[in-house]
# Entry
Amino acid sequence: MAELYERLRAAIVDERPVALATVIEGHNAGAKLVVEPDGDIFGTLGHPELDRIVSRDAVGELAAGRTGVRHYGAEGQARETDVSVFIESFSPPPIMLVFGAVDFTAALARSGKLLGFNVIVADARSVFATVKRFPMADRVLVAWPDEVFDIYGDRLGPHDAVCILTHDPKFDVPAVQRAVATDVGYIGVMGSRRTHATRLERLREVGVDEKGIDRLMAPIGLDIGSRTPEEAAISVCAEIIANRTGHSAPSLRDSDGPIHRPPADG
Amino acid sequence: MKEILADLDAWKAEGRRVALARVVNVEGSGPRDPGAAMAVSDNGDVIGSVSGGCVEGAVVVEAIDILDTGERRMVSFGYSDDEAFAVGLTCGGTIHLFIEPLDW
# Structure
């Protein structure tokens, strides 16, 4: 029976999406089905029809990254509750693409790892984009934004993040252009309000529409008064979480005035 | 379960018997989402967590019983205000766990 565990384990370790369906109530409690995104199955819940219906549902749950209990008839019938099946989705870690090998990048890469991101640091300048400077990153690419999006663009979804830290129009304009063309959940762009105002002009010139511009979190991060690269990294990561969950938090984008104000109590 | 996979592998390699507890459903406010998992080995070692520390002790007791009997089952924990020291979630929610031997 250890083969079920091995199948599941191999997919998780190889970072392939996989779902595990387990009968938790009803006939055959404990029976399991490992379901892959293409609908391939291993194991059985005890009835071929039940396997077919549950695997179909599991593919959907896996695509949405959801985990929960569903109810079926003994042969997979809808609107019946003979069998309760726990469908657990195992998705590969979300991706954080960081553009710009700057001081702040190392702190952000570390915080990204803490949150479980697969962190990729990219910069077109080979002197700066080195594994030695960013040993905590899962991958360091010497590449222009276009090349990076050619690799990762199609994989980006609601749980992924793009952080553009270059504040150089040469890099950040093409990076934003490509980022807004993806389904990525978070796009943060570093720079002062003034930098961002000129950046917006350039973005509109190259045809980024208002819907795209509205997705940009710029200046990047929550308004928590962070000063050091590590504090700023926390503010960005917190903004990524708030953005994903839809909870309100004081983003710098939604306030006025200098980003680095003196502390209120001196 | 992802978080405890490496430890589970090690236990399996050592030939330990293991009970796996997974959160399958949470009603109301709960500290961990469905999918949170902990495991208990036959010599009482524990890895992972299924709540903010509220019910882990009781889960260990259930898990050891399940290792003895081999009977997998659903176990639920809710808010308990009738007994001062009863096992329950202080956050007011209810969590439903599926606990089973890791024999698959």
